[in-house]
Specification:
By secondary structure, the protein is mainly α. 68% of the residues lie in helices and 0% in strands. It is built from three helices and no strands.
């Protein structure tokens, strides 16, 4: 059975937290508790081992290794955009020229695709970006509402705790005042009893003295 822990601190009505040595004493108690606490179970054992390379691509791995080795980044290769002629020894080779023509046609098609993408971006990119911003704005509004709701719940909880502790503080002060009054009355009664006992003892001695003198 789980052992319940009673927290009897009342931070809204308790005093003395700012007195010298209180914070140090509390921290010392925490450190002492930490020294005596020896966890016997790994509370993360039900989780699988962390795999940091799950979303790591080959390009990312190579780049991370380059950064770790403090090597400079390679310059952007422009070779794929070059249109070199056939080598000097193959200037009359039809196949070599055909390969160069195929390369130039591929480069031309690539540039045409880029132009088309730019045109599409010019026509529809603005609207797509506006739609994306609207989605982000809705997400932001929902998150802000959740945040405000949580803040409201926390504030209501704090107000409730403060109200309960304030009422408890008033009751405690009333009981403390009653206790002090009762203790004071008990002390006065004890003092009166002591004085009466002393008076009784004195009278008994006087009575014994009178009886002795008469006899």
């Amino acid at each position: 059975m789980t052992q319940e822990v009673l927290v009897d601190a009342l931070p809204y009505i308790d005093t003395g937290y700012d007195e010298p040595g209180v914070r140090e004493a509390a921290l010392a108690m925490v450190e002492d508790e930490k020294k005596r606490y020896r966890p016997t179970k790994n509370y993360l054992e039900h989780l699988s081992n962390l795999n940091l390379a799950t979303f790591e691509t080959e390009l990312m791995r190579v780049e991370m290794e380059r950064v770790a080795a403090r090597q400079p980044m390679d310059n952007l290769s422009m070779k794929r955009y070059e249109l070199p002629p056939p080598p000097p020894g193959k200037m009359t080779d039809v196949a070599a020229w055909s390969e160069c023509v195929d390369n130039s046609m591929a480069q031309l098609e690539h540039q045409a695709t880029r132009i088309m993408n730019l045109e599409l971006m010019s026509d529809y990119g603005g609207e797509a970006w506006k739609s994306y911003n609207e989605v982000l704005q809705k997400m932001l509004s929902q998150t802000q509402k959740q945040l405000q709701q949580l803040k409201k719940e926390i504030q209501e909880l704090n107000w409730s705790r403060k109200s309960l502790q304030t009422n408890a503080g008033n009751e405690l002060r009333h009981l403390e005042s009653s206790w002090v009054s009762l203790v004071s009355r008990n002390y006065e009664i004890e003092q009166a009893c002591v004085m009466l006992e002393a008076e009784i003892t004195k009278l008994e001695k006087e009575k014994d003295n009178i009886n002795t003198s008469e006899s």
